Amino acid sequence: MGFLIVQFLTGLSDASGLFLVACGLSLIFGVSRIVNFAHGSFYMVGAYLAYYLIGYLPLGGLSFWASILISGLIVGLIGILVEVLLLKRLYRSPELFLLMGTFGLILVIQDLSRWLFGSEDLLGPRCPGLDGSIDILGTLLPQYDLALIIIALLILLAIWLLLNRTRWGILVRAATEDREMLAALGVNQSLLFTSVFFLGSFLAGLGGALQLPKGGADLLMDLNVIAGAFVVVVVGGMGSILGAYLAALLIGELSAFGVLVLPQSTLVMMFLIMAVVLIIRPYGLFGKGKSGEYEYDEKTSAPIQPASERLKLAGLGLLLLVLLMPLFAGDFQLVLMIEIAILALSSMSLYFMMGPGGMISFGHAVFFGGGAYAAALLVHHLNTPMELALFFAPLLVGLLALIIGWFCVRLSGVYLAMLTLAFAQICWSIVFQWSAFTGGDDGLLSIWPSDWASNRIVFYYLTMTLCIGGILILRHLVFTPFGYTLRACRDSALRVDSIGINLKRHQWFTFALTGFFAGLAGSIYVFSKGSVFPDEMAIPRSFDFLLMVLLGGIEALSGPVIGSAAFIWLHDLISRIHFWQLILGSIFIFLVVAFPRGIAGFLDNRFGRIFSNHIGPRA
Amino acid sequence: MLAVNSLNTFYGKAQILFNLTLAVQAGEIVALIGRNGAGKTTTFKSIMNLVPAESGKISFKHQSIYHLPSYKICKQGLGYAPEDRRIFTKLTVMENLEAGKQPPRRDFKPWTPEQLFELFPNLAEKRHQDGGTLSGGEQQMLTIARTLMGNPEMIILDEPFEGLAPMIVKQLARTIRKLKDQGVSVFLSEQNLNVARLICDRAYIIHRGSIRHESPIDTLSSDQYEKYCSV
């Protein structure tokens, strides 16, 4: 009995920790519609700051709590800085650019923390006065766990009062509904946004500082915590603080007890809960659908144009260059080109889903890594020759995409994106934990091409044929009736629905198509590398693909190819430098601020006329 | 008080307003009459900079408000109640009023919720209900009341009578006349000449994005109206 109570309280304490990270994120999203990827980084910085402050503050027993509060405030100020200097410039850009900007922030903060705080994992100090355990019917529970439960409840109450009993709260809630109207009523939204961002960041820093005695501080915290925070926010309903608390509770308790039944379920549990909740309640426990929201700005992008004659000629020239490359390029360049082609196909498939398909995926690596694993498993367990593996692996991934897509297309927007992340994480956990079948963390080794293709130049041509072929097929599809319908679905779901088009089925098919081509890319990839590891399916990999697409720009068809090339080139160029993440992150931030339409969009803006069929000003 | 000069506004590539010019004096109730798609709402949104104009001049109390952020325009004393009401549905009536509240203006008695409830008795008993639960007519009153909480010197009402029952139209018309008595100028849009005659001093007829006719409401003939506004 005592064990069950302690297990329950442990679950509650974990839930409190989750809530502390998630509530700030939810608050910020609710008002500004910003999905702040860097929220986990703020959390990490809060933990580090508290660690050092506790050491320096000469306040005795008080210094612990004072440090936590000060850390939260400092992180809040950092939040203001970020909002004013970076995010304000991006409010008018497409949502994806905000994502990319905040993702750049993750990289920058990651390296700055490494530089400031060192890369060693820090063990958290104990909380003075609360460092013991209490005995509950024979089982021990740390006192600090109880303290966290109470603190989380107090913060929940404080936020509730702030939102429901103050003028500031009324304005914040009004802003979540209709920002434009609020401006017409004389409210300076800009200031309101900044204040919300301050509070959200403050809560993140506070959360990080508060969990210091439990988890310490390390450089992996940012990404570790952000996925969980997103799940909580989405399950609770974006923008709902009470929802976030209940979601955290649900996840905390189900995980605490799920582990007793199924010890292997730790990594999957959270994402499984999210998948189930989103299928039953697409907008989360307390979330409201779009119906209550005023559609104040319908962002329409310029329609994609088929390439002009000149542009086609330029493409042909590029193709010729690629084909002639083995004549003059060294081995290293060929390897680089192979990687670029593979990633270009994969990011092209993601582009197809995001651009024409209008569905953002945070879990694209599940298809890419899935293809790599499908091929590797076929070779490893069934001794399948490369040719057959390259044929069957994409089909298997296409099938997987059909299953995942069936769930995902029921949602839209950020919710859909989060569900893709959940499925990717579930698949990753399976691969990671089922080591008997997949090799687990050690991966699968010795997956080499057939003899005839083992020559580098032959493999180069094989890769180019498959990848360029795949890219051209996807490109072609954009200009078929299927592609037109898909874009219509993206631009106005309602109108498409009313003229008798089955929107969901088109999106579902897009998932399968995306999966197939990403799977093809993944299966070639595994033969080019000779091995595959769970990393290929993990969250950072998904972000890589997102970055490639964003780097190229989502308004141009050539975007993913240019983006992949730029990404690999950049990565290769700067990964040898010590603080390369800082540089990469700064480049991303610079890019989104300077080129809000991506590189390809920028090129089109500047030099589009040269490649246009018509001379003279473009309409 | 409000002067608009040669205003041109686009939605994307489509021009909606063409050299639109009009003026509203202090203490007037002026109607902007036109049929659907004539550009009434766009005119108002351009004035409030909710849809930024391409070119032109807009001044309020002899100061340019052209391309000023919307919230600053409101703070100058120009209130706006949109056509589609845009009540904050998840806020109560009282909270909606609070959201519209602005500091009092000099030489001007600030509006309080209690005064507004006298003006709009229907709202009084629903003060703690969510905005989303109100009827169409009540929402319309709440929009106006919410805008008045900003203590405007002039209020823009975009089709305030649209979709209201005849009884409510009369009640609202009386209320708007009362506003004038209290020193608030009113600039409203309307499709129906008879309704406009009920309360307005002067009228502009807008057609295809520019002003085609201007006269005191008494001398505005049905023919003039029919010419541009009959369907």
Question: How do the strands line up in the largest sheet of chain B?
Answer: 6-7-8-3-9-10
The tally of beta strands of chain B, per DSSP, is: 10
Q: What profile does the largest beta sheet of chain A have?
A: 2 strands, antiparallel
CATH superfamily membership of chain B: P-loop containing nucleotide triphosphate hydrolases
Number of helices of chain B: 9
| Structural class assignment of chain B | alpha/beta
Give the radius of gyration of chain A: 25 Å
Index terms:
heterodimer, A: mainly alpha, ABC transporter involved in vitamin B12 uptake, BtuC, two-stranded antiparallel sheet, globular, B: 231 residues, Rossmann fold, six-stranded mixed beta sheet, four-stranded antiparallel beta sheet
Topology record:
The complex is a heterodimer of chains A (619) and B (231).
Chain A: H1 2-32, H2 39-56, H3 62-85, H4 95-117, E1 133-136, E2 139-142, H5 143-165, H6 167-177, H7 179-184, H8 189-210, H9 212-215, H10 221-236, H11 241-261, H12 266-280, H13 309-328, H14 331-354, H15 365-382, H16 386-408, H17 413-433, H18 435-438, H19 456-478, H20 481-491, H21 493-498, H22 503-529, H23 539-552, H24 559-574, H25 580-594, H26 598-607
Antiparallel strand pairs in A: 1-2
Helix pairs in contact in A: 1-5, 1-8, 1-10, 1-11, 2-3, 2-4, 2-8, 2-10, 3-8, 4-25, 5-6, 6-8, 10-11, 10-12, 10-17, 11-12, 12-17, 14-19, 14-22, 14-23, 14-24, 15-16, 15-17, 15-22, 16-17, 16-22, 19-22, 20-22, 23-24
Chain B: E1 2-11, E2 14-24, E3 29-33, H1 40-47, E4 55-60, E5 63-64, H2 70-75, E6 78-81, H3 93-100, H4 113-119, H5 121-124, H6 136-148, E7 154-157, H7 166-181, E8 185-190, H8 193-199, E9 202-207, E10 210-216, H9 222-229
Parallel strand pairs in B: 3-8, 3-9, 6-7, 7-8
Antiparallel strand pairs in B: 1-2, 1-4, 4-5, 9-10
Helix pairs in contact in B: 3-6
Give an overview of the whole structure.
The complex is a heterodimer of chains A (619) and B (231). With 619 residues, chain A is an all-alpha fold. Chain A has two domains: 2-287, Orthogonal Bundle (ABC transporter involved in vitamin B12 uptake, BtuC); 311-611, ABC transporter involved in vitamin B12 uptake, BtuC, CATH 1.10.3470. Chain A has helices at 2-32, 39-56, 62-85, 95-117, 143-165, 167-177, 179-184, 189-210, 212-215, 221-236, 241-261, 266-280, 309-328, 331-354, 365-382, 386-408, 413-433, 435-438, 456-478, 481-491, 493-498, 503-529, 539-552, 559-574, 580-594, 598-607, and strands at 133-136, 139-142. In chain A, strands 1-2 form a two-stranded antiparallel sheet. The termini of chain A are far apart. Residues 291-300 and 611-619 of chain A have low confidence and may be disordered. By secondary structure, chain B is of the alpha/beta class. In chain B, the strands form two sheets. Chain B has a six-stranded mixed beta sheet, with helices on both faces. Chain B has helices spanning 40-47, 70-75, 93-100, 113-119, 121-124, 136-148, 166-181, 193-199, 222-229, and strands at residues 2-11, 14-24, 29-33, 55-60, 63-64, 78-81, 154-157, 185-190, 202-207, 210-216. Chain B has a single domain (2-229), classed as P-loop containing nucleotide triphosphate hydrolases (Rossmann fold). Chain A binds chain B through residues 167, 170-171, 173-174, 177-178, 180-189, 292, 294, 300, 619, and chain B through 12-13, 48, 50, 69-71, 74-75, 80, 82, 86, 88-91, 95-96, 98-102, 132, 146-147, 150.
